[in-house]
Write a structure and sequence with these properties.
Low-confidence stretches: 109-149
Structural class: mainly alpha
Order of helices and strands: HHHHHHHHHHHH
Radius of gyration: 50 Å
Distance between the termini: 155 Å
Number of strands: 0
Length: about 300
Amino acid sequence: METVLLLAFVPLGIAALLLLVVQPLWSLVDCLIDSEKSVISKIGWGLGIFFAGVLASFAYALVGTSSRKLRMSSIGMFGFMLLSGAAAVGVLFATPDGKDLIATLEQASSDSLDAGLLGDPASEAEASTEEDDTSTATFPVAIENHPAADSIESSLTDAVQELTGTNNSIEALKYKTDAASNMINGEHDKALDAISKAIEITPDDLDSYIVRARINEVLGRKKSFNKDLLHVARTTSKEIKDNEAVPQTYYNRGQALSMLGKFNQAIVDLEHAVQLEPENPLFEIGLTEAKWKRDAKAH
C-alpha cells in the first residue's frame, strides 16, 4: 500500500516541481499572447495553481498513508516548495529587477493591446499625412485644369473685393457724415478727426481729401490744405492721362484747382464734367462756384 501511495505521490511531486519552473515562464510568455490580462494576474494564477497542486499532494500523502517516513518526506518536500515559491515571489515583487521586469511586461502588454485595437500610430499618422498631402496636391491641379477655373477665381476675387469695399465705404461714409455734422456745429477739430479716419479707411476716395482741405482752410492750416489739394490734382491728372477718367475725375480736379486759385483751369474741367454728366447737380454747382470766384477775384 505504501509503495502504491509513494508511486502516486512522486509524480505529483515532480509535477509540482515542474509547475514551479514552467508555470511562471509560461505566464510571462502568455502575457504577450493574451493582452487582456495583466502580468501580475497571470503570475498570481500560476502560483496559485502551483501551491494548490503541492497542497493536494501533501494532503493526499498525509491522509492516504500511515508511513511516518513518507509523511515526513511529504512535509519536507511541501516546505521546500513553499519556501521556493515564496522566494520566487519575493524576487519577482520585492527586488528592483523584478519590479522593472513586471513594469516592462505590463507596458509590453499595454502596447500590444493598443497595437491590436488601434494599429500602429506611426503608420497611421504617416498614412494620414500622405493622404492629406495627396489631396492637398491634387485639389489645386484639378481646379487649375478645370475649364472655368479662371472665371471662377476671378469672380470669387471680385466678390470678396466688392464686399470688402462696400463695408469700408459704409464705415467711411459714417465718418464723413460725422465730419459734416461737426462742421455745421462749429466743431472743426472733431470734423478733422472724423474725415481723417474716413481717409484711413478709403484712401482712394478723393472727395474726402477735398473735404479735409476745406476743414484745414477754416483752421488756417495752409500747408495741410495745399497738400491734400495737390494730391487730388496729381491723382486725377494721372487718371486722365491714362484714359481712366470718369466725370467725377474732372469734377474732383476742377474742385482742387478752384480751391488752389487756378480758376480758369478749374472751369475747363468742371465744364467737361457737366458735359459728360449734365444731370448731376453737384457738377453744375461746382462750375458756378468756380466762375463766381474767378469773377470776384477779377474785381
